[in-house]
Fold this protein.
Amino acid sequence: MSQAQQYSVGILTISDTASADSTKDLSGPTLKTVFKQASKEKITFNVIKSAIISDDFEQIQNIVKTWSDNENLDIVVTTGGTGFGVKDITPEAIEPLLQKKSPGIAYAMITTSLQKTPFAALSRLVSGVRGKTIIITVPGSPKGAKENLEAVINVLPHAVDLAKGGTGENVHAQLNAQKTNNSKDESGHQCVHNTKHEHHHKHEHDTTRSFLSDPLSGPVTQRQRKSPYPMITVDEALNIIANNAEILGSITVPVNENLVGMVLAEDVYAKEPVPGYRASIVDGYAVVASDGPGIYPVVGVSIANVQSDAMQLKPGQITRITTGGPIPNGATAVVMVEDTSLVSTSADGLQEESVKIHVQARNNEWIREIGSDTSVGTVIVRKGELVTAVGGEIGVLSSVGVREVRVYKRPVIGILSTGNEVVNHNEPELKYGQIRDSNRPTLLAIGKITGFEVKDFGIVSDNVQELENVLKLALSQVDVLVTTGGVSMGEFDLLKPTLERSLEATIHFGRLKMKPGKPTTFATIISDEYKKLIFSLPGNPVSATVTSYLFVLPALRKIAGYDNWNLPIVQAEVICFII
């Protein structure tokens, strides 16, 4: 008899009421019972972690990340916070954590519940994979939680196996032992796996995306009168952005002036010692310290210059030497020129023949030994450090023989403005109803001063097709796109629906608890195998400038690999009314 397949489970109850009084938690125990009843001879679910917390964005994320990243649980189920309530933020907290989304699981749960109540349409369920953990959100009511989990519990072992890099064959074998007819389930979903781990699906239904934005083709009379996007705090927005701003990778670049503004992707070690030879710290005479004071013949000169071989100094001799000059072999100290006097010169009076030493030199006095400044293998610049024009990083790297380094790729930024009324700032005269574009020049200047490559995509009119075309063009060339205008509630505010419906971008938030900047929108889109960021800022110039500093610049710094990517925020107190 084969051993049962074991799956570790964590259940997280998210409820202000239950967190204050654990006896009010009915959904958590209900889910535990569902897992227990689903455990059979060949498949066993072990609930090894459970917790009850309030509707707190950061707390939700911290526990789920701990269970996934540190505890390595196979399955994490959250219950609560998935509705339309003001404090329902579970989907917003969970979605940024998902590395792969699984809309099919959410679809299966909602479809099952809709067969029993139309109110299931109000559930905002998300599911997906983080690392090797399957994460699912279910409603907070015991009935809803039970129905939703039961709808998908039979596919969870299969999902876990795939997330761990398996082919699903072992799970199929276990399920076949419990269920004789497993070729096709009730949803009409067939899975076939070959030995190359290719995953083919055949569906009898279509999974459709749900949109918050208005249809692009809908009449103005049918537009929403209130924004459907949840209002979130600035801190929540920053957390969402941080979770989606990913480093683009690293490249090897030469050490030169173009390195300024880049962040090192690895520790850099000295390849050569500094100094690379025994060098004099002062101008004077190289001596044998044990000779002591006296009159000595000057047998040579050592200057800071390229030399084929080191000079040889014997006891009873001295050599004139300059600062930085190589110490002759046999010399053990340097005496400063101030502690000597000239005794005799050559016949033409141009060269010193003998010099009197007035002091007793000490061994190694005024000598820089090899590697005394920097020895081979010393870490000279650490991973995550920014190379600046004034911090000396390029000079240090150059001095120790480092010719190239690995740095994080810097994001390419695209800037565009939207609006029929917006014209270039350098237009000679304005027509009635036109305004000059001040946002684009401002954002281009901000991008330039930060050292990132910035591309200007101009001004786009409030036309659906033109906007879609320019957005697609921009996103094919940049890593981060920043737009201004078109994100509020007007009939020509087309950014959100175009992003969501035409480009299939994910809008993570569309309203903020801040002024100026309330309609600021943040979205992502998967392109060229990695995630691209889209910041759609309000058209008001003050709003655009403020939100670019608060949200765009920190994201760019994080993508570029900055360790300290947040910008300074100064607390101020308003002591009088501002009119």
